[in-house]
Amino acid sequence: MSINKSEVFEYHSHKRPGKIEVVASKPLETQRHLSLAYSPGVAEVVTAIAEDNATAYSYTAKAN
């Protein structure tokens, strides 16, 4: 396979630089959403995981 340098740079800079993008899997549009996802809401999830490690597969990306 022949790949030239200009193709490489075009590929890497096309639209947005880079190749991987992280996007939210849940709505994060309001203060309520942020409170559910982060503080104080996440404390409930952390407590549940501390009590039963297997719940990490249900509430986090660990199963991914």
Structural class: mainly alpha
- Structural Rg: 19 Å
Low-confidence stretches: none
Q: Tally of extended strands? A: 0
The biggest beta sheet is recorded as: none
End-to-end separation = 33 Å
Q: What's the order of the H and E elements?
A: HHHH
Number of helices: 4
Q: Percent of residues in beta strands?
A: under 5%
The global form is elongated
Whole-number average pLDDT? 92
Helix content: 40-55%
Describe the structure in brief:
The protein contains 4 helices and no strands.
Description of the structure:
With 64 residues, the chain is mostly helical. The chain has a domain at 24-64. 47% of the residues lie in helices and 0% in strands. It is built from four helices and no strands. The protein has helices at 5-13, 31-37, 42-51, 56-59. It is elongated, with a radius of gyration of 19 Å. The model has no long low-confidence stretch (mean pLDDT 92).
